[in-house]
Amino acid sequence: MGENIVVVGVDNSDTALRAAQAAAEIALAFGARLHVVTAFEDDRTEEFGVGSDRWIVSGPSRAEAVARDVVASLGWPGGSGEVTSAAWRGKPADAILAEAQRLRARLVVVGNRRMRGIGRILGSIANSVAHGADCDVYIVNTTGDAD
Predict the structure, then answer these.
(1) Which of 54, 78, 93, 131 has the maximum number of C-beta atoms within 10 A of its C-beta?
(2) Distance between CA atoms of residues 107 and 43, nearest Å
(3) φ, ψ dihedrals at 89, nearest 5°
(4) Cα(90)–Cα(109) distance, rounded to whole angstroms?
């Protein structure tokens, strides 16, 4: 059995935020640590600038910022357990599975985005995680429909 850790996979979408909110509620209810993970597929670095100001942004730093932003938006209450985040290089499902296995998570939470229509035929992150996880998987209805 895994440790008392809930892993949630996110990107910068509203549906991922809904999955993260559900994961936070579950983690708080069970006194679990919440771990937010996001993925990036390239190490490309871009430079942005206005006048003499320059910013260098890489794939990993953008992904880490997404995870941190999701954590910040959750309003995790102080003293209610730990919340952490990470960015992994690779496909989203692989990143979520790798973190869950590395942490020996008890539960993985993902949204149901792309589980209908052509996404159902081609596969989805939720489908890949559900079939590959070594722990329980909770798929959150993030579309607002009651399928």
Answers:
(1) 93
(2) 29
(3) -80, 130
(4) 18
Of 41, 33, 34, 21, the closest CA to residue 111 belongs to 21
Quick: pLDDT tens for 48-60.
555 555 444 446 7
| H or E segment to which residue 119 belongs | helix 118-122
Query: Would you give the DSSP letter of residue 77?
Result: P
Q: How many H helices and E strands in the chain?
A: 5, 7
Q: How far apart are CA 82 and CA 15, in angstroms?
A: 23
For residue 29 the two structure tokens come to: 């209810």
Residue, of 42 and 33, whose pLDDT is higher = 33
Cα–Cα nearest to 74, from 125, 128, 134, 28: 28
**Segments making up each domain of the chain, as ranges:** 5-140
Superfamily for the 5-140 domain: HUPs (3.40.50.620)
